[in-house]
Specification:
heterodimer, A: four-stranded antiparallel sheet, B: alpha+beta, about 20% strand
Chain lengths: ~400, ~425
């Protein structure tokens, strides 16, 4: 299948980029950067990249004045290199969120379904397209009748692989029509799944290999254009980072140790929020209900969401306050498991209590933790016991030392 | 010679006899093998690798295990001790249907339990002891045609209602086997399925069981005191649910009433059941026409409808052992190996074989999992060591019930079964 050059320019994350820009592919990072900054359009490219960072740091939902010309490919590649150079997970997440959202908006405005079909094919997705749309049901509410139809169905393996991080209820396979291996999927939902692909494509893990990064930086810092752009972004970040570099300052008396008592499911969500990763609906509900149950003030709970790309303070405050009034109970372990939010296996140390249970040395006799709030309670109880033991031990030692030598 | 040594020798003889017919699982040398030996206090030995079936069978003859397993996963280094070092390449989708994990009415007759806390005894599968409310039991689970039929129906439901029509899985990619005890295994072997991670497998499991289904998303909503229900014409779970509702509504009134009030099923109270029965014909017409979806039964609010639909989902979904399908490092019983708790063979079956397969009285010799039938009708003398043993019907003949101390003279295959179950000893 051949895909148009225009489509690759517009969506440079497509695998066909390799085909169209063979020469670029063979260049090393630093060679590519030299080439870009010796190009007559280098100022334009650098400006566009800077604009993306500005938009991300300003919590914008769109990249302003985005153009889909052939420079877009250079912008995309330079953006990826810059993320590697910056080596900051929070920045990477924000850029990935923004860039993927922008791609979503572009795809949503595609006039023809054949472009979306071409994109899917280029991504290697097994997909069927229907024109006219294929009906798969009916929605009747009172006098309103809506035909359920779509232009696409996607193979369930591809569907699962794209949707596995998006655990919203409506994306669950169970809640979708599946026939002969294909999920009938609304155009918008399909595009949202591709957005997730784009987001993942930009998510470069923070490198542990500091030496290589240092060598790379030493090399590319000699290219003035790159250095200027890098410094500009760094300065921008330094000015804004306090707003994003969120640490969980839960300055409530006697609750400092609570953080140490959190179960793995909670730690995982807090970690994701800290890194500015998107939280799915159930993660958001659970963390709010959990922290409110531990009597954290609304303001502190709201703060947790401040790093997320779609943060809206007023809206979040209203929702957290509503949850507080309703006094919801956080999900129990069984529900967390079924929602795929149980992280007992991921966290070796914190997950031990969840995996092994408590109450007896005999594995058969041990009881299982059934609720994350109980996990906190048990951890705190154990910690109190340990402190008490240490206090008594110290007291005994002191008394022993006061005894006269015999 | 103690009884385990005796059984071990019998198993050895079986493997010796079968050495030229022993089946080979796909990607044989990339599978991890594991076994549970006869020696008590020795747990499962895992992380074993065999280059070919010949090597495996030689090992089985040398040291016949009580249970033999191989992995659903394939690894470049299946014998590495740490999972991380095995170089995981992918995992088949394994579905385990075992009546141990779900209720069957026959368990009230043959599954015995004893509460370790208060000493109460009973039959069935209670979650908690009815006397002390604790859940520490000693159990004696038995087999009968009824529960094995239920398990077989579940595997058929899995294949014909889900895997083929919904997932489009080819028959040639499915491997079905009778487990040798109380259930069946189904393995889907295909390159694309091997790529699925645990989260993705959980999604498949939820689809097969109907767990975490959202009735709201399928169309059940309340708008100004009217309840709008699901439509039969909507593809996916909506259709499955409404087909089942339609099926139930067509039952004779008395039978329907019994189902609705049964506390192991819908568990509806008398008044609600009565209004349901009154509305039955209108409801059936509404479903068939599919033009309107206002569900108006007196006493049925949104919560009651959800309770009703939840039971429908339970009946439509497959009763499977969820962790087995989600865990990518599970081992499953090796085809044609012997089950150490029954002495029965893990019998591979084609979909065609499955139709008439009857594990406890199979007429087709090639498919018969009861391998220790004596050709000379030899009998064996055993003493019962368990308080009570339920009746066992094998090959059309009933044996028992027996009680402790009883001396019995039974055919060889029944003796092997009781010895494997550890409820009797040779004398």
């Amino acid at each position: 299948m051949s895909i148009s050059n225009e489509l690759v320019n517009q969506y440079p994350w497509l695998p066909s980029l390799r085909k169209f820009y063979k020469d670029t592919r063979e260049l090393s990072y630093s060679e590519f950067i030299s080439e870009i900054f010796s190009n007559t359009n280098n100022v334009q490219i650098a400006k566009r990249v800077l604009k993306i960072f500005e938009a991300a740091f300003n919590n914008l939902e769109e990249i302003p004045d985005k153009k889909n010309d052939n420079l877009n490919v250079h912008v995309y590649l330079l953006l990826k290199i810059m993320l590697y150079a910056l080596n900051n997970k929070i920045i990477t997440n924000r850029i990935a969120n923004l860039y993927s959202k922008s791609s979503y908006n572009d795809m949503e405005h595609e006039n023809s379904i054949s472009n979306i079909y071409d994109i899917c094919m280029d991504l290697g997705l097994k997909i069927n397209s229907y024109d006219p749309p294929e009906p798969y049901g009916l929605k009747i509410v009172k006098d309103h009748r809506e035909k359920l139809e779509t232009n696409f169905s996607i193979h369930y393996i591809d569907y699962l692989s794209l949707a596995s991080n998006l655990r919203d209820e409506y994306r669950k396979l169970t809640n979708n029509p599946l026939i002969d291996g294909y999920v009938f999927i609304q155009n918008k939902t399909l595009i949202r799944l591709i957005q997730e692909y784009v987001r993942n494509k930009l998510l470069i893990e923070e490198t542990e290999d500091k030496a290589s990064l240092k060598a790379f930086m030493k090399n590319v810092s000699q290219i003035q254009g790159f250095k200027d752009l890098y410094d500009n972004i760094k300065t921008l970040w330094e000015n804004r980072k306090e707003e994003f570099d969120f640490t969980f300052k839960l300055d409530i008396k006697n609750k400092e140790e609570m953080l140490l008592s959190y179960p793995p499911c909670v730690i995982e969500i807090l970690k994701k929020a800290e890194e500015g990763q998107n939280l799915v609906h159930h993660e958001r509900l659970f963390i709010v209900w959990f922290l409110l149950a531990l009597e954290y003030p609304v303001e502190n709970v709201v703060n947790i969401f401040s790093t997320l790309p779609d943060f809206d303070k007023d809206k979040t405050t209203y929702q957290v306050e509503y949850a507080k009034r309703k006094n919801y109970t956080p999900y129990q372990c069984l529900t967390l498991k079924s929602l795929g939010l149980c992280m007992a296996d991921k966290y070796k140390e914190e997950g031990e209590l969840c995996r092994e249970g408590y109450g007896s040395k005999d594995p058969v006799e041990r009881k299982k933790i059934k609720h994350p709030l109980f996990y906190v309670q048990l951890k705190q109880y154990r910690s109190e016991r340990e402190k008490e033991y240490k206090r008594n031990l110290a007291k005994r030692e002191l008394e022993d030392s006061k005894k006269p030598n015999e | 010679m103690n009884d385990f040594n005796y059984l071990k020798r019998l198993f050895q003889a079986y493997y010796q006899e079968e050495q030229n017919n022993f089946p080979q699982v796909s990607s044989f040398n990339l599978r991890e093998f594991g076994y549970i030996p006869w020696e008590k206090k020795v747990f499962m030995k895992r992380h074993l690798k065999f280059e070919n079936p010949k090597e495996l069978i030689a090992d089985l003859i040398q040291n016949p295990p009580r249970h033999l397993y191989s992995s659903g996963s394939i690894y470049l280094e299946p014998d590495a001790r740490e999972m991380e070092s095995k170089n995981y390449q992918g995992c088949d989708l394994i579905i385990d249907i075992d009546v141990d994990h779900f209720y069957t009415p026959c368990k009230e007759k043959h599954d015995l339990w004893y509460c370790k806390e208060c000493g109460t005894e009973g039959t069935g599968m209670p979650e908690k002891c009815p006397a002390c409310k604790k859940s520490k039991f000693t159990k004696l689970n038995w087999v009968c045609d009824d529960c094995l039929d239920i398990a077989k129906n579940e595997i058929k439901k899995l294949v014909y209602n889900f895997l083929i029509p919904d997932f489009g899985i080819n028959e040639k990619d499915m491997r079905i086997a009778f487990s040798g005890h109380r259930g069946y295994h189904l393995k889907v072997e295909s390159e694309e399925i091997r790529k699925l991670n645990s989260d993705e497998r959980r999604e498949i499991v939820d689809y097969l069981t109907g767990d975490n289904i959202s009735f709201d998303l399928l169309g059940l909503i309340e708008r100004s005191t009217e309840i709008h229900g699901l439509l039969k014409g909507n593809f996916g779970w909506s259709q499955k649910i409404m087909n089942r509702v339609e099926e139930i509504l067509q039952k004779p009134e008395k039978e329907l009433e019994d189902i609705l009030t049964d506390n192991n099923s819908f568990d509806l109270n008398h008044n609600v059941t009565e209004s349901f029965l009154n509305y039955k014909d209108d409801f059936l017409e509404l479903i068939r026409k599919g033009e309107r979806n206002v569900w108006a039964i007196e006493g049925f609010g949104l919560t009651m409808w959800k309770k009703f639909l939840k039971e429908i989902v339970k009946q439509v979904g497959v009763e499977l052992d969820e962790p087995v399908s989600i865990d990518i490092h599970r081992l499953i019983r090796y085809p044609s190996s012997l089950h150490g708790k029954t002495g029965f063979k893990v019998q591979e079956l084609s979909l065609d074989d499955l139709k008439d397969f009857n594990p406890l009285d199979e007429s087709n010799k090639k498919l018969d999992p009861i391998v220790f039938t004596s050709k000379k009708n030899l009998t064996q003398k055993l003493e019962i060591t368990e308080n009570l043993i339920p009746m066992t019907k094998i090959k059309g003949v009933e044996y028992g019930p027996y009680s402790k101390g009883e001396i019995i003279n039974i055919p060889h295959h029944i003796a092997v079964f009781l010895l494997c179950k550890e409820v009797a000893k040779t004398i």
